[in-house]
Amino acid sequence: MALLELKNVYKIYGDLHALDDVNLTVDEGEWVAIMGPSGSGKSTLMNIIGCMDKPTRGQVLLDGKDIANESSRGLTDIRRDKIGLIFQQFHLINYLTALENVMVAQYYHSMPDEKEAMEALKRVGLGDRAKHLPSQLSGGEQQRVCVARALINHPELILADEPTGNLDETNEKIVLDLFRQLHDEGTTLIVVTHDAEVGASAQRVITLEYGKVTSSHGDTSFGKAARKDVV
Amino acid sequence: MKRQTMYFRMITASLARRKSRMLVALLAITVGSTILAGLVTVYYDLPRQMGEQFLAYGANMIFVPSADSEGMRSEEIDEAVAQIDADVEGAISYCYESATINDAPIIIAGCNLEETLKTSPYWQINGALPSGDNEILVGLEQAEFFSLDVGDTVSIAYLPPDAVREGEQIIGEVEGKVYQDFTVTGLLDTGSSEEEYFFISDTDMSELIDSDLTYDVTELRVNADADELAASVEKIKQTVPGVSPQLVKRITESQTTVLSKLSALVLLVTIITLALIMICVATTMTAVVTERRREIGLRKALGASDRSIMLEFMGEGLLLGFIGGLVGSFLGFGFALLVSTNVFNSTITFLPALIPVTIVVALAVTALACILPVRNATKVDPALVLKGE
Ligand SMILES: Nc1ncnc2c1ncn2[C@@H]1O[C@H](COP(=O)(O)OP(=O)(O)OP(=O)(O)O)[C@@H](O)[C@H]1O
Ligand SMILES: [Mg+2]
Fold first, then answer.
1. Whole-number Cα distances in Å, B190 to A129, B48, B288, B347
2. How many CB atoms lie within 10 A of CB A130?
3. Is A193 in the pocket of ligand 1 (CB under 6 A)?
4. pLDDT, tens digit, 9 for 90 and up, residues B209-265
5. B99 - beta bridge partners?
6. Collapsing DSSP states into helix, strand and coil, what is residue A8?
């Protein structure tokens, strides 16, 4: 079943078509990479899928519900309940420890649970860094905290915008491995990247140019198959 | 973990771990609360302080001899006092005479010293009041000049006016000069002109000048308002010709007006202080919200509702307000104590109710100041976290 469906989506700033008639379907459990040159509309697309922005025109169906009709409050609810976000710039709260940063996501979602948050940190290999502030963590470690935070509420969909853009090879591998695990567990992943290797890890690569989807490579059925294997 | 625990952990972490502008706001609230609590404490205590102070200023009515009279006899004074309808708390008459100690001129005042303390409660006496014959109370200035201390004996020379002849010198041995030894029983510390005089009892004075006393001035402390005092003055003028009664105007009038003027001043300072705290907290909060736009966007991206964002920033503001108010209420009492001891020379009572009141005021002002910046915080677009910046 399609988790996400974009139909004739436009995002227009003045006379700039940041997204120009985008049609896209992402199935449950699928791992999709979005690539394309700078300014091609990748972040714009992520913002819309992530319910942080609305399209100028078109339908965005998440679980069959059109987010274009949602109020900003409704969008907040969807974001909180269904989506995990990972950013290029880490975006941790700088005065909270790694553990607390993960717990913030729990706090807005439901109940802060220190033990569960600690499990998530251990899972990304940061069990011994839980009490560190972001400034005391390396870039790779910070990004792993973000991953822990994104997966803590078991979202249906994880969106990552350039998650490895600022990481060295070792950390890139760690993050990719985490994505692989999440994928194996059935989480749907949409990853924006410039990195060919990251793109290659995905099942499908979608290329954007000037706001248009210019190509879509990969085996769409693989996602479903992989999911069946797990279940 | 409870949500409230996490909430509290977040806002305290924000204040404790970010060495930020919030400290400026905290400082402003603390200083403001200190000023407020201090002012209120002093102001609350003021009527009592003022009462004592004005009483300490002593007389609100004086008698002096009328223009054609050399001095007032005690019968005349008694008659005049009897004309006053209100309660006379004290009436003390002074008879001043010039004398010399080792040919240095001095002024001696003869009076009923027991009575003096009633109209002049601010008199501080090191030692005791003269109680027996030939005892003397010495003004501090004179005591220093003549190197006198309690227990010393001083010889005072008096030359009756009728013994002085035109052009003749009065220094040294002069015919008619009388000498009398006095024992110093106390030194008088008033901080004003009384320190330049020597004080002896009426009877000693009468013996020294060898005649009945006529008084130069009578100081009265009358428990009456300005109108009643004026009425008494008129009555005495009509009935006792030898006595010219006068009101010590400035004091009686100011006693009532000073308080109302001060309360207006306190109110004004209070309003200005509150306004300043509010401006400072509001600007700081606005700056903080701008500074933390990314964090706000991130929180929203993580699913924070507008309400949560408002609660968090308001919570930080109110926590500052609480701490500032609490610290300020204590500092304010210290400040009031300082003012009171330095200005009024007395301590003040601590008002326990002042602590909650100051905190509530500080909270209210911070809350008011935070409304706009906090509302701006909710307007931050979560999409900006994905933008590179
Ligand atoms: N809020 C906005 N107002 C006006 N134009 C915008 C806005 N946001 C994005 N754009 C424009 O839309 C286009 C797409 O931007 P977007 O951020 O989606 O690019 P991108 O593919 O993510 O680029 P990069 O790889 O550099 O991150 C750009 O030309 C950008 O200038
Ligand atoms: Mg981008």
1. 72, 21, 56, 19
2. 19
3. no
4. 888 888 999 988 887 777 788 888 899 989 888 899 988 765 555 566 777 777 788
5. B106
6. strand
% of chain B surpassing 70 pLDDT: 89
Closest CA to A150 of A76, A83, A78, A88: A83
- Cβ-Cβ contacts under 8 Å, B1 against chain A: 103, 111-114
Report d(CA B316, CA A192) in Å as an integer. 36
Residue boundaries of the structural domains of chain B: 3-53+256-385, 59-247
Q: Is the pTM of the predicted complex or chain greater than 0.80?
A: no
What are the distances in angstroms from CA B45 to CA B34, B258, B345, B351, B358? 16, 14, 13, 10, 17
Dihedral angle over CA of A57, A62, A63, A65, nearest 10: -40
Query: Whose alpha carbon is nearest atom 7 of ligand 1?
Result: A13
CB A59 within 8 A of CB A68: yes
The answer to whether the CB of A42 is under 6 A from ligand 1 is: yes
Phi, psi for A230 (deg, rounded to 5): -70, -45
Closest ligand relative to A56 C-alpha: 1
- For tokens 């005791």, the residue is B128
What is d(CA B94, CA B198) in angstroms, rounded to the nearest whole number?
12
Q: Order across the sheet with A16-27: list the strands.
A: A16-27, A2-13, A57-62, A65-66
Q: Which one-letter amino acid corresponds to residue B146?
A: F
Give the C-alpha separation, B186 to B183, whole Å: 9
B307: nearest CA in chain A?
A73
What domains can be seen in chain A, in order of their start residue?
2-218 (3.40.50.300)
Residue B27 CB-density burial (10 A; 0-12 exposed, 13-18 middle, 19+ buried): middle
Name the DSSP class of B215. Answer: B
Nearest to A23 by CA among A42, A10, A39: A10
**Residues surrounding ion ligand 2 at CB below 5 Å:** A 43
Q: What is the pLDDT of residues A164-220, one digit of tens each?
A: 887 888 888 888 999 999 999 999 999 999 888 888 889 999 999 998 888 777 754
Are B386 and A50 a contacting pair at CB < 8 A? yes
